[in-house]
Design goal:
By secondary structure, the protein is of the alpha+beta class. The chain has two domains: 30 residues; 154 residues, Glutaredoxin. It is built from five helices and nine strands, in the order H-E-E-E-H-E-H-E-H-E-E-E-E-H. A seven-stranded mixed sheet has the order 2-1-5-4-3-8-9. Helix 2 packs across helix 5. It is globular and about 45 Å long. Keywords: Copper. This is SCO family protein. Pfam families: SCO1-SenC. Belongs to the SCO1/2 family.
Length: 208
Amino acid sequence: MPRRTVLLFAGACIAIAAALAVVTMVVVTGREQAAQSLPASSETGQPMVGGPFQLVDQNGRTVDQTMLEGRWSLVFFGFTYCPDFCPTTLATLAATQAQLGADAEKMQIVFISVDPERDTPQALKDYLSSDGFPKGVIGLTGTPEQVAAAAKAYRAYFQKVGEGDAYTMNHSLTVYLMGPDGQFRSAIAHDLGPDRSAELIRRAMARG
C-alpha cells in the first residue's frame, strides 16, 4: 500500500477515535454532572434548587413545600398528555423504587404538572394510577401562576407549544432528589436507569 494512502488511512482512524471520545465524554458529562449545570449559592456552593410553593394534590388538598420534610423526595416536572418522556421517566422511577427495596419506604415521588390547563387533580389521579407507574406517587397541580412559581424555584423549564386542543408542552427532564430537610441533594438524569439511580439515592441517604 503506498505510504500516502497509509498515512491518510491512519489519519482517518485517529479522527474517528477522537470523535467517538468526544461523544462519550458529552454523554457521561450530561448524565453524571447534571447538578453542576445548576446555579449555585455564593455562600454554600450548593445548587439553588427548591423553595416555597403552594399547589394542590390529586385529592384536592392544598400543599406547600413542607410536604417534602421528613422524607426523601424525588421531584419531577411533566404533564399527563406527554407522549414519551413522562411515562418513560415514571416507569423508570417505579423500577428505581423496586431496586431500593426497604429504602423505598423512606422516599416519596412527586410529579408536578406543567400543564394546569388540562391537568386537574382528577386528571392527575387517573393518570398516576396507571399500571407500571410508581406506587404512591403524589401528583401536584395548581393555577398557572402557582405552577410557574414552583418551576422557577426548581429551575425547571417549560413552554406551551401549539394552539387549540392539540398543543403540547416542552419541559426539562431532570429529577430532583431532595433530602428529609426539604433541601436539594442531587440531580438525576431522566435516562440514568434504575440501577444507577438507586445507587445514587443510597449514597445520598448514607451521607444524610
